[in-house]
Specification:
alpha+beta, 519 residues, Glutaredoxin, eight-stranded mixed sheet, FAD/NAD(P)-binding domain, disordered C terminus
Length: 519
């Protein structure tokens, strides 16, 4: 391995270390952290031909479940990575999601089994360790150099790369990467080294999370519920297979250590009449909060996933947001490394993703404020108002996330929306057309922009989907659509104009001003 210092070798102090501009690269991208965000980012980067080194401080996938839900867009990403079948085996369609009163009356209900623009069900419940193992197993066949355990100690950026000091089983060593992405979680070492602060939404609630296996489910509900009881708010989830989760809000004066004891858990689960037949896999107290890093890029170093933002779990979007980061960032890093775009293209990453993340956090906090009321009078007023609005056909909260705006998007019809993936009994659109950007329609230019696949509406390969594509184009009054590699629409219009705008915007990113939406 290039750049390896033998264990025990003398090294200069940090203050005396200098960046060596002539040193060869060990990787195009170093990914720090191999949770779902880092796994997906590493896989997508490798699929696009980049040399990737990925590290994680733990030698094994974390054995206990953490994330509970992922959505259709993330399933579409798993499909792109090539592990859809493995993920389906480790998950199930989520079904109903209800917010109910202490008396069991439904305040809000979501049907999460609906079909979507991605060609998958709206939401799935997962067993995260199984999902992570499937992702991790995919890395080596794609050529990712995954190193675990390995810990990031230090970073030093230069004009053309980043010198990284790591520690592994054989001691400390260094490597050089063109780019570094910190996917290393809420306590991100990368974010700490960059000195990046966090915007705090001032929503901070401690909850006890219990994950358990029940071989005999009995009468346990087979759905997902928020029990909005002012005596103690509770989240309940039927996970996949024989797994179940409860989350109990801590009340004022309760300590994390006391509430996590067997005696306390037995009492909390008493109304569910299931404690004796449960095998508890995890008990932990978490603080549910909303945080956003003030900068997601510092030169050649970027943040993604929980390193860039954290959110309460009520919308089931924590892991999803990290995967969306990875998808948005992967194709842009690929374009920069291949010389198809200026490095300033990476400034569009936060410009596009932060407003979406903030919208999701705010929805999750709104849900949390519905759930977390402890005052009985306020809870009774909430119930009366929400039940009246429900009876009138109104909905207090909608799981509707915004389209992307700004960044590398036009102001043409469809721009920033997720392009549909149509599905036939034998094929899915993404599998047929493959990775990269697509320019689909009529009157296509003779020469496509770099990395863009041009597909005529009359091309036989598109035949199973031609009617649906035609309808989409007609609805947008366009002859063609340019779909970005992350499957968001760049714009719809004439093919020649779209190709020209794509080329121009990639070239003009050098003049794009960096935006910090958190300040």
């Amino acid at each position: 391995m290039s750049g390896l210092d033998p264990p025990g070798a003398d090294r200069p102090d940090d203050a005396n270390r200098s960046y060596d501009a002539d040193r060869p690269y060990d990787a195009d991208v170093l990914v720090v952290g191999l949770g779902p965000t880092g796994d997906v980012l590493s896989a997508l980067l490798a699929q696009s031909g980049l040399r990737v080194i990925a590290i994680d401080k733990s030698g094994e996938v974390y054995a206990a479940p953490r994330a509970a839900v992922f959505d259709h867009e993330v399933m579409r990403t798993f499909q792109a990575v090539g592990i859809a079948d493995e993920i389906l085996a480790a998950s199930r369609v989520a079904g109903r999601y209800e917010f109910v009163t202490a008396d069991g009356e439904v305040l809000i209900e979501f049907d999460t089994a609906l079909e979507t623009r991605s060609g998958w069900a709206e939401n799935y419940v997962l067993h995260q360790p199984s999902v992570e193992r499937a992702l991790r197993a995919r890395l080596a066949p794609l050529g990712v150099d995954a190193r675990a355990p390995a810990t990031l100690l230090d970073l030093k950026e230069g004009d053309a790369g980043v010198d990284c000091r790591l520690s592994g089983p054989q001691g400390e060593y260094s490597l050089r990467a063109r780019w570094v992405v910190g996917c290393d979680g809420a306590a991100s070492r990368v974010r700490e080294l960059l000195g990046i602060g966090l915007f705090d939404y001032q929503f901070d609630e401690p909850w006890l999370v219990i994950d358990a296996v029940a071989d005999e489910p009995g009468d346990l509900p087979q759905r997902i519920m928020q029990l909005c009881d002012p005596k103690r708010p509770i989240t309940y989830l039927k996970m996949c297979a024989n797994r179940y989760r409860w989350e109990f809000m801590l009340l004022p004066g309760e300590s994390p250590a006391e509430i996590a004891t067997d005696a306390s858990i037995r009492a909390l689960l008493g109304p569910w009449k299931c404690f004796e037949r449960l095998k508890i896999e995890r008990r932990a107290v978490y603080r549910f909060h909303g945080l956003v890093a003030r900068r997601w890029r510092s030169g050649r170093i970027l943040l993604a996933g929980d390193a860039a933002h954290q959110m309460p779990p009520f919308a089931g979007q924590g892991m999803c947001a990290g995967v969306r980061d990875a998808v948005n960032l992967a194709w842009k890093l690929g374009a920069v490394v291949r010389g198809e775009a200026a490095p300033a293209l990476l400034d569009t990453y936060q410009v596009e993703r932060e407003p979406h993340v903030r919208a999701v956090i705010e929805i999750a906090i709104a849900m949390g404020r519905v759930v977390c009321l402890l005052d009985p009078a306020a809870a009774a007023a909430r119930d009366a108002q929400m039940l009246a609005r429900r009876a009138a056909g109104e909905r207090d909260i909608a799981l509707a996330f915004p389209d992307l705006k700004g960044g590398l998007l036009t102001d043409l019809p469809g721009a920033g929306t997720l392009f549909p993936q149509w599905v036939t009994p034998v094929a899915r659109l993404d599998d047929v057309l493959g990775a990269g950007a697509w320019l689909i329609g009529r009157d296509l230019p003779d020469t496509a922009p770099p990395g863009v696949l041009t597909v005529s509406i009359e091309d036989p390969v598109l035949a199973p989907f031609a009617g649906a594509v035609e309808e989409w184009l007609e609805n947008h009054a366009a002859k063609a659509v340019l779909v970005r590699p992350d499957r968001y629409v760049f714009g719809a219009g004439s093919a020649a104009a779209l190709a020209g705008q794509w080329r121009a915007m990639l070239n003009e990113t050098a003049d794009l001003p960096a935006r910090n939406l958190s300040d």
